[in-house]
Amino acid sequence: MLKAWNDLRERFEIEDGSLPDLFSICYETEEAVSEAFEYLRSISKPISSTFMLHDARLGKDVSLTSVEEPARLVAKDEVEAFCLMFYGALSDQKADFPELGVFVFPKELQFYYRPGPDWSEESLGRLFDIMTGLSKIDGSEGMDSLLPDTEYYSEFWLRFEKHYKQSLTAV
Q: What is the pTM assigned to this prediction?
């Protein structure tokens, strides 16, 4: 992972105010997209505890925490698609991974990240673990890069694919 981090660190460590896209993953069913979102919720915390989403059934905004399985409801067109920034569950005052964002659509999750000094070799590895976990959910139709076609981003994608293939052979 050290080589991957050395090759990619400039794009993750330098805080420039941007929120670059990373990847999207599509799912065949509302159950699969819901499982993927619930997986994210189980390993992370939202940046804001007052995050709201629009409940089309009620015709008003409601707290994300008041809605069970919000991604499933998005897939059923009962709540509107939403975006959420989150970070890794805290352990010893340090996040397992820095801020990531997700757009939740009916059968797709799209991810972006906030560059900054909190990124490290370990958090890049954790990001690859998250990507791997999301891609192994039943009903996954595959992951697509949302990154521009540049040498740097091609390198990122190659590093993730190597990580993913190693996870398939790990016992």
A: 0.84
